Amino acid sequence: MGPPATAKAGEQVSVSDWKIKVGSVERKPEVDGVKATAGQEMLVVTFDVVNGSNRPVQLTREDFYLIQGKETYSPVDTKKGLFAMEPVAAGAEASTYLVFMVPVGSTGLKLSFWPFVGGYVTTGQAEISLD
Question: Could you tell me the CA-to-CA distances from 103 to 35, 71, 107, 110 in Å, in that order?
Answer without folding.
Answer: 13, 11, 9, 14
